[in-house]
Amino acid sequence: MTEPMIRMLLRGLGETMVMTFGSGIFGFVLGLPLGAVLFLTRPEGVLEHKIVYRLVSAVVNVFRSIPFIILIVWMIPFTRIVAGTSIGVLAALVPLSVGAAPFVSRMVENSLLEVPHGLIEAARAMGATPLQIVWKVLLPEALPSLVNGASITLIALVGYSAMGGAVGAGGLGQIGYQYGYVGYDTVVMNTVLVLLVGLVFLIQWLGHMISRKTDHRK
Amino acid sequence: MIELKNVSKKFYKKRAVVSALSDISLRVAEGEIFGVIGSSGAGKSTLIRCINLLERPTAGQVIVDGKDLGGLTPQQLTLARRDIGMIFQHFNLLSSRTVAQNIAFPLELSHTPKKDIDRRVKELLTLVGLESKAQDHPVSLSGGQKQRVAIARTLASHPRVLLCDEATSALDPETTLSILSLLKDINHRMGITILLITHEMNVVRAICDKVAVISEGRLIEEGEVNEVFARPRTELTRRFISSAQHFVLASGDGLVLNKEGGGYD
Ligand SMILES: Nc1ncnc2c1ncn2[C@@H]1O[C@H](COP(=O)(O)OP(=O)(O)OP(=O)(O)O)[C@@H](O)[C@H]1O
Ligand SMILES: [Mg+2]
Q: Is the shortest distance between the CB of B90 and ligand 1 below 6 Å?
């Protein structure tokens, strides 16, 4: 492999990581509050509210059922407004984050549902406000499960960002597309593959470690 | 200190209506330890959960420390609950927090300064005899120790009233005894009014001043513990009393419980 190629692959890896972790962060910023709202307003929830629950739930379901490649293309006009362009890493962060948010919110809702109901009762009995219940009870108690969910989300985002590469998002996906689909280069293709698999393994391992460190239930 | 006026609670299920409490009136005086006993499904938990409005009564009034809780806004109710302690059968400690952090929890809720929290947590750890466990997580504690942490936690915000929902039902007889004497001690020293529910007459005999018997959501008997034991008026009460005596005869631990528990009468 020539040196420019190595440099290109390293830059691709960097871009993929920026897209994955960047949209992961934005996805959580959007998805975590949505997930908490879903949990609180669900039937029998702490702040049960039929209309809010149904509305948020419907929006989340709609966005979750749009295939990601379609979401990217459909969002191009919006992406142009937000990022000023529709190609490159920065532009890819927009649809990736929007794609991740509903995924994250369902995952957060499920993690919060695993928190024993008695803990919420006890917190209410001690005079915790709904916000305090979320911050001081639900999120800390659900942390190990949230971390697991985060690694699943990030792994999905590695895949999404590679898909984005096919439509100009950059990263390993774009390199793989150019050197594999447009013209086949065995060395580059195999390197892209190894890098992507390595990245996924790294995320999984980190997630597992952190989740175990934060779990005091066993 | 606690007054229930004609409290009823119905649960509306898909088809059926479950009447968990029917027209319950009772009054717990300041500084008293009041026991409510009943069989499984009698409505004990529903009753105690109505007192801090974890469950809203369908009808009737709940007055705690002079406040009609039903008339409060959600914010006022949240604040009122900080003066009403509660402990549970399954302890409900936060697994993510250490013992000390669990005890600090209600103080954090009321935005107590860090310095005061640390001081209060130390006091409470000493009170319940768990100084050495301050930095442990609940998972490594025994049931009795967990309940001690829960008691310390609920006392942190200086409640005037303590509600106990089967607080000793998950514990063995000896640990039950130690938790009961801790509750008695707290009642004695701090003048905290205690309402406890149980399905064991032994618990009532050990620490309660007064007792009420509920069956199928109705209050069927109420009075001074000595009175009720000497002259039970209903068949159910008689059964509870005799089961308590059998329990004492049947197990070696029970004898200890009876002897030391009797010391409180
Ligand atoms: N959230 C609820 N929804 C519907 N029915 C309920 C609910 N909570 C309690 N009930 C019903 O109310 C009745 C009283 O229940 P409660 O839990 O108060 O009994 P209990 O005396 O505490 O019993 P146990 O000793 O088993 O804890 C039962 O018939 C129960 O099925
Ligand atoms: Mg119960």
A: no
The answer to whether B65 touches B160, Cβ cutoff 8 Å, is yes
Residue A59 clears pLDDT 80, i.e. is over it: yes
Pocket test for ligand 1, best of B36, B46, B168, B214 (most atoms within 8 A of CB): B46
**pTM of the prediction?**
0.88
Nearest CA to ligand 1 atom 1: B11
Mean pLDDT of all residues belonging to chain B? 89
Residue B136, min C-alpha distance to chain A (Å): 10
Asked if B58 and B8 touch (Cβ cutoff 8 Å), the reply is: yes
Q: Looking at per-residue confidence, does A218 or A22 come out higher?
A: A22
CA–CA separation, B165 and B61 (whole Å)? 20
Q: Which residues of chain B have pLDDT under 50?
A: 248-265
Chain B interface includes A109 (CB < 8 A): no
CA distances from B193 to A177, B14, B164, B169 (A): 73, 38, 11, 20
Judged against a pLDDT cut of 90, whether residue A1 lies above it is answered with no
Give the dihedral sign, CA A187/A188/A191/A196. Answer: negative
A19 and A27 Cβ atoms separated by less than 8 Å: no
- C-alpha distances out from residue B81 to A50, B19, B49, B124, Å: 26, 25, 12, 20
